[in-house]
């Protein structure tokens, strides 16, 4: 869909002879094209400072600065480096100096006397290329605007949802106490677990906006123990899923300087995923390795596979399988952002009926000055 008319495309014509400029102008004239004329290399450079041009048609033989010199200067400046050039020359075809240094395809030659058909054909190609680039830029900008808008919107909504949700949670506490032993207890527990899920979604949405428009998730490092973090998370998740088997194996030194609450979030998301999306008949296996001096490694494995269509996009936001659609599909995106904030890396393998995530964490800030 094309809605916005573009500003006219500009061509720069450079020739020391007025009559040559007029001929070129006559041959190229059309409403969607603005033709800028320069009578010398210097004039051309001045125009190029003010205008963005799609193409420069440059006469080779000019007094003072010749066409090749002008093109050389254009190539040396960032602003004009990528302007395609067509040299107009009266020289014999075999004699023309090959202009070096320009990318192939960005330079062409036209021989005098100018053949109107060839001129139009050659310039048309550059005209279209330029238009396509404009169109691409427009679409990219529009897309970026839409994304920014959506994310700001999501952040605002997330924030406003917290207050009513807190009211629900507080009312649930009161209900739970006053209805102790009554048959409505299971209902109260459902309200509680639904509120918890909703609170997690709101937290995830604000992490998403932090990562996307806030320049990344910020972490605060302090001495931490990965094994202790894992034990805590496993204990919590076991109360929620008492019938699932979670095996923890560890070796070596698992201490480092990390943001412990963020690390908990990572481990909780990963184990939560194994419980929620993995094969319930098979155990969830954790293996922590601290044998390396500069980093630790956390591995988690479960039965079942990530659906093939989302595997290549697993760490992108809002990607989720069709199975249990309880979450927003933000968990692994946030996990990977927290890993990145720690200078670490997370990878996934899912094949032959097994899914494995591997998180490698440097023990310390890799960018911190060494003491
Ligand atoms: N351990 C796993 N085993 C099998 N499939 C998995 C596993 N972890 C993730 N997946 C698949 O990857 C998808 C994306 O996971 P992610 O954690 O990003 O989102 P989610 O769990 O669906 O929702 P959220 O984490 O936001 O609550 C899941 O919907 C699931 O299909
Ligand atoms: Mg998840």
Question: Compounds present?
Answer: adenosine-5'-triphosphate, magnesium ion
Determine the structural class based on helices, strands and strand pairing.
alpha/beta
For the biggest β-sheet, the strand order reads 2-1-3-4-5
The CATH topology of the largest domain comes to Heat Shock Protein 90
What profile does the largest beta sheet have?
5 strands, parallel
Helix-strand blueprint:
Elements: E1 9-14, H1 18-28, E2 33-38, H2 41-50, E3 55-59, H3 67-76, E4 85-89, E5 107-111, H4 116-178, H5 185-213, E6 222-225, H6 226-240, E7 246-252, E8 255-258, H7 260-277, E9 284-290, E10 295-303, H8 331-341, E11 345-351, E12 354-362
Parallel strand pairs: 1-2, 1-3, 3-4, 4-5, 7-9
Antiparallel strand pairs: 6-8, 9-10, 10-12, 11-12
Helix pairs in contact: 2-3, 4-5, 5-8, 6-7, 7-8
Bound molecules: adenosine-5'-triphosphate (ATP) and magnesium ion.
């Amino acid at each position: 869909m094309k809605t916005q008319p573009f500003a006219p495309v500009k061509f720069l014509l450079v020739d020391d002879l007025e009559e040559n400029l007029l001929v070129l102008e006559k041959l190229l004239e059309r409403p969607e094209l603005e033709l800028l004329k320069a009578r010398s290399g210097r004039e051309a450079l001045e125009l190029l400072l003010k205008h963005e041009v799609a193409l420069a048609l440059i006469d080779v033989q000019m007094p003072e600065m010749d066409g090749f010199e002008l093109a050389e200067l254009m190539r040396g400046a960032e602003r004009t480096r990528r302007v395609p050039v067509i040299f107009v020359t009266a020289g014999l075809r075999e004699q023309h100096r090959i202009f070096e240094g320009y990318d192939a395809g960005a330079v062409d030659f036209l021989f005098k006397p100018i053949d109107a058909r060839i001129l139009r054909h050659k310039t048309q190609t550059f005209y279209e290329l330029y238009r396509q680039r404009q169109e691409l830029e427009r679409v990219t900008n529009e897309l970026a605007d839409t994304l920014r808008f959506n994310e700001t919107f999501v952040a605002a909504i997330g924030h406003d949802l917290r207050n009513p949700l807190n009211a629900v949670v507080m009312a649930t506490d009161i209900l739970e106490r006053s209805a102790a032993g009554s048959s409505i207890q299971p209902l109260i527990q459902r309200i509680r677990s639904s509120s918890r899920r909703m609170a997690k979604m709101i937290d995830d949405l604000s992490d998403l906006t932090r990562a996307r428009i806030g320049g990344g998730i910020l972490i605060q490092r302090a001495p931490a123990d990965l094994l202790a973090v894992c034990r805590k998370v496993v204990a919590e998740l076991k109360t929620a899923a008492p019938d699932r088997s979670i095996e923890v194996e560890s070796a070596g030194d698992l201490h480092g300087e990390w943001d412990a609450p963020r690390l908990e979030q990572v481990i909780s998301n990963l184990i939560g995923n194994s419980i929620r999306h993995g094969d319930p008949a098979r155990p969830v296996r954790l293996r922590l390795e601290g044998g390396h001096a500069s980093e630790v490694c956390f591995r988690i494995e479960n039965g079942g596979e990530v659906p093939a269509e989302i595997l290549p996009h697993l760490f992108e936001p809002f990607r989720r399988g069709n199975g249990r659609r309880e979450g927003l599909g933000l968990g692994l995106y946030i996990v990977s952002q927290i890993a990145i904030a720690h200078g670490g890396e997370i990878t996934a393998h899912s094949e032959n009926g097994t899914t494995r995530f591997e998180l490698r964490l440097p023990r310390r800030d890799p960018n911190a000055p060494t003491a």
